[in-house]
Amino acid sequence: MKARTIRVWSLVHTWTSLISTVFLLLLCLTGLPLIFHHEIDEVLGYAPQPEAAAGRPALPPQQIVQAALAADPGRVMQYVSWDKDEPGIVMAFTNNAPDGKPDNATVRAFDAVTAKPLGLVGVGPILIVLKLHTDMFAGQPGKLFLGGIGLLFAVAIISGVVLYWPFTRRLRFATIRDRSARRVAWLDWHNLIGVVTVVWALVVGLTGVINTWAELMLSQWKANELAEMVKPYAGKPPPAKLASLDQVVTEAKQAAPGMEIAFIAYPGTPFTSSHHYAAFMRGDTPLTSRLLKPVLLDGETAEVSDTRALPAYLQALLISQPLHFGDYGGMPLKIIWAVLDILTILVIGSGLYLWLARRRKRARATAVAHAVPAQ
């Protein structure tokens, strides 16, 4: 590779890394506890625990809805969801209005057998960490900004891979020149850890970027695919009386045999139209349990209006969300994700150290040059 080309790639790598350094450290540091958010919530007592009721059938979902509305009088239902990892728990989302802002929602967990409230969901210190990680408490602009940081991170990774060969081609793999200057040893460690974590960092960085586009993707789906699905209802007023959730659940399961309900969106919420319930169905394998299929049902009669697969861009989003936090393979994968996260923090920190050390070296050389009298 020509010296000029190397210099250009070096500038790209340096400045994309420097611009994103502070925010990448924030994302890595907050991402570490989020990998274990289920376990942390359980230890701190924020994870709802269902009562022991082995062998007893679950209550009709409409009774859970009635319990949720009784717990939050004056509010309306937005969503009801079923935890795939804890079938004994049903979560109910209430808000001031069907299209109320997510930050105004109250999420309560209920025992699926007794309808007993099990506490609020989405509270505690992990919620603060999650907000810092996803949007820095800045809403959608914060998400898009962090998405831009993720793209810079991807460019820094790619440029680092391009530079790896020219700078290490004369060294054996994993060589650490600890007898040389401290900066040289740090450079070797930076290159080694960087190349070991490169695939993981690129995958996590790009899935993080995709996650920041979630609201934009949902808006695209609503403007196109969902609009096509609800076209026969154009001009009709919203339902005067909503169908029972029990009937909605029964019809949705018949429309998607072999699948179970992940969550149901009430008419007027962001995931459906003003006329329809939307039941989002999932499969029973590690992959298909992440890929949802919407079933639209008439808000008054619960009759199935339409059902079709989500577009590819939303499927990519659904796959990227658990992949970003290592939620596919249980505790072993979470531990691997945590180790790689810590190694990435070391790469970012060592890169910042190398840049500062190089600046100090240049400053000393400049000072010496000015101190030497002209001959």
Overview of this protein structure:
Helix content is 55%, strand content 13%. The chain has 375 residues and is α+β, with helices and mostly antiparallel strands. Strands 4-3-2-1-5-6-7-8 form an 8-stranded antiparallel β-sheet, covered by helices on one side. It is elongated and about 90 Å long. The chain starts with a helix and ends with a helix.
Structural class: alpha+beta
The number of helices is 11
What is the number of beta strands?
8
User: How much beta, percentage-wise?
Assistant: 5-15%
Q: How much is the radius of gyration in Å? A: 26 Å
The arrangement of helices and strands along the chain is HHHEEEEHHHHHHEEEEHH
Biggest beta sheet summary = 8 strands, antiparallel
**Which regions are unreliable across 5 or more consecutive residues at pLDDT < 50?**
none
Question: Could you say how many structural domains there are in total?
Answer: 2
Distance N to C terminus? 39 Å
For the largest sheet, list the strands in their spatial order.
4-3-2-1-5-6-7-8
Shape assignment: elongated
The level of helicity is 40-55%
InterPro entries: PepSY-ass_TM (IPR005625)
Keywords: Membrane, Transmembrane, Transmembrane helix
Organism: Bradyrhizobium macuxiense
Pfam family, one: PepSY_TM
Describe the SSE topology:
Layout (H helix, E strand, L loop, with lengths): L2 H33 L1 H8 L16 H11 L4 E7 L6 E7 L10 E6 L5 E4 L4 H10 L4 H30 L13 H15 L1 H15 L1 H16 L15 H11 L4 E6 L10 E7 L10 E6 L5 E4 L4 H14 L4 H42 L4
Helix pairs in contact: 1-4, 1-5, 1-11, 5-7, 6-11, 7-10
